[in-house]
Amino acid sequence: MRRVLMVLLLLVSAGQFVHADDATPKEEDLIRAAISSYKTAFDKGDAKAVAGHWTPEGEFTPPGGETIKGQAELEKSFTQYFQDSPGAKIELESVDIRLISPGVAVENGVAEVILPEQEPSITEYSAVHVKTPAGWKLDNVTENSVVVPQTHYEHLKSLEWMIGTWVDEGADGSVETVCKWTKNKNFMTRSFKVHIQDRIALEGTQVIGWDPIKKTIRSWLFDSEGGFGVGIWTQNENRWTVRTLQVLANGEKASGVNVMTKIDENTFTFRSLGREVDGELLPGVDEITIVRK
């Protein structure tokens, strides 16, 4: 029965789902009124009123379940659900409705059932609305489970402050870095460009992600000269230490330790030490301040 409610989120949106080119203002107003009435009944836990928003022969098919047919059976299901799940609320996302004839509309969207102190339940649905002498009613609803993508956001959110555009201005040039989330927040990308006078001297991309085997944050770096490298990240309060190993374009191996310290949401410092190329120790990079653009 919990799944029954998930599809009914399709009735909650009072103004976002009817396209101007699909329905006349009059029909849009009538559908919105039916939606508002349904939401009121649902939020009150009134099973009889909720079932009354369906046609007498209305059908609902939950994910992997048997079809519930008719207002009487729907009312029984809602009655049981409201008893078991007090305080349930409904929400909608990505709602799309097309009027395919003067008396029939098809709706598709993502539905979410919210219960107190529980994780929301999410499904995709397709619903057929029909115009009857009693107004717009639900006639057929099919619901499918949504596979929630796995995300490593919880492991990476301590670095979320880096999202945005950052600039290091110097006397001879500047470095601009743009940091973004990828889809599902499983990785962060940092694209950088080194400007010297009026030209781009070097550019590249760093990808930051969570290593589920090593249980640590790792990064992969690729530059426009053909070099590439990896890094291991560790955190100590507002300071991140990145131990790097690189292969330069000429085949030489390089290593070092980069330290980034967050000062506030718009400022961090950077320094590099322990730099080596093929075993030869190089001077470190003194601390510089980088600001949000």
UniProtKB/TrEMBL annotation:
Organism expressing this protein natively: Gimesia panareensis
Signal peptide annotation: 1-20
Database matches in Gene3D superfamilies: 3.10.450.50
Domain of life: Bacteria
Protein name as catalogued: SnoaL-like domain protein
Record keywords, A-Z: Signal
Keyword Lipoprotein: no
Keyword Membrane included in the entry's annotation: no
Domain DUF4440: 31-138
Pfam families, alphabetized: DUF4440 (PF14534)
